[in-house]
Design a protein that fits this description.
- The structure is a single chain.
- The protein is of the alpha/beta class.
- The chain is 53% helix and 11% strand.
- The chain is built from 14 helices and eight strands.
């Protein structure tokens, strides 16, 4: 019996939106994607308890403070994930650096060096950066150095095009968060898949990239329902939570391909410089609000992780 998840894997690279080891073993994704929220959750995974204890002991012995320990532990968890998937593990640059190009590049170099010390090459890692103008410029530098990047918190076509212009390896448009904003603005409970603003946003970006010969990978993220996932079947990559992976693994209905380079709607190229980029993002209330909110929330989870580690270091 072929499941919806099995069918999806024939047309889309499935990425696990989790740092939980058991879920990754169960659903066998190609890649893993992480953010501070997922790393914070992974700290509660019983399977990682020994690893965390040993890493914190080493940090304590080396005199590292909590922020330094957080950086080390994030890569340590990423290294465990890299051993479970055949593809790549995204590792995020601190959200507080989202408006500092030089600091973002420096942090990315630290992440790559920490992975290398654990025997994991840069070809297995994607450096994850917020799709601000500064984050995109950092990605441009890193891509020229041969360090591939995942630009996250993408809520608009302008962000997506700027990322592609910078040569980003992959972008992550956030389906569910776009839908959440529009549901609140429209005062509705939900949308059909064909009318879902989050789904429409990813389809628009996909069509633009494919019709303009852009190689940057489009990875739909932040799904609220399995219906949203199905509505993007055929997208390059989709990062999916364990809950929705489980639902798709129990669904035996036929899953038709929705997106394909052969059927992409032709879209005229968009010419972007910094003023135009900033204006287009500013003119989109949803993109402006959700980008800012996403950066704040990632930073809040990062700070919670640091506070948690400070307590354990001092215990």
């Amino acid at each position: 019996m072929t499941t919806a998840l099995d069918q999806l894997k024939t047309m889309t690279t499935v990425v696990a939106d989790t740092g939980e080891l058991a879920a990754i073993r169960s659903y066998k994704p190609v890649d893993c994607t992480t953010n501070p929220s997922l790393v914070l959750a992974a700290l509660k995974d019983p399977e990682l308890d020994t690893l965390i204890t040993e890493e914190l002991a080493a940090c304590r012995a080396a005199g590292k403070d909590a922020p330094a320990a957080a950086a080390v532990l994030t890569v340590a968890i990423g290294a465990e994930l890299a051993r479970l998937v055949p593809g790549r593990v995204s590792t995020e640059v601190d959200a507080c650096l989202s408006f500092d190009t030089d600091a973002s590049v420096h942090r990315a170099h630290e992440i790559i060096a920490e992975y290398a010390a654990r025997g994991i090459g840069k070809e297995r890692i994607l450096i994850k950066l917020a799709a601000t103008w500064e984050g995109i410029r950092a990605a441009e530098i890193l891509q020229r150095e041969g360090i591939d990047c995942n630009l996250t918190l993408v809520f608009s076509l302008a962000q997506a095009v700027a990322c592609a212009d910078a040569g980003a390896w992959l972008i992550s448009p956030f389906v569910g968060r776009i839908t959440d904003w529009h549901k609140k603005a429209d005062g509705v409970e939900g949308y059909s898949p064909e009318n879902d603003p989050g789904v429409a946003s990813v389809r628009r970006i996909y069509d633009y990239f494919k019709s303009n010969g852009i190689s940057t990978i489009v990875m739909g993220a932040s799904f609220r329902t399995a219906a949203q996932v199905k509505a993007l079947a055929g997208c390059d990559n989709l990062t999916i939570s364990p809950k929705l992976l489980d639902e798709l693994s129990r669904d035996t209905a036929e899953l038709p391909r929705v997106l394909s380079p052969d059927t992409a709607v032709a879209t005229d190229p968009l010419q972007l410089d910094e003023p135009t980029f900033r204006w287009l993002v500013n003119a989109d209330a949803m993109a402006t609000e959700k980008l800012s909110e996403g950066i704040r929330n990632f930073d809040a989870d990062h700070q919670r992780m640091i506070a948690l580690l400070a307590d354990r270091l001092n215990a």
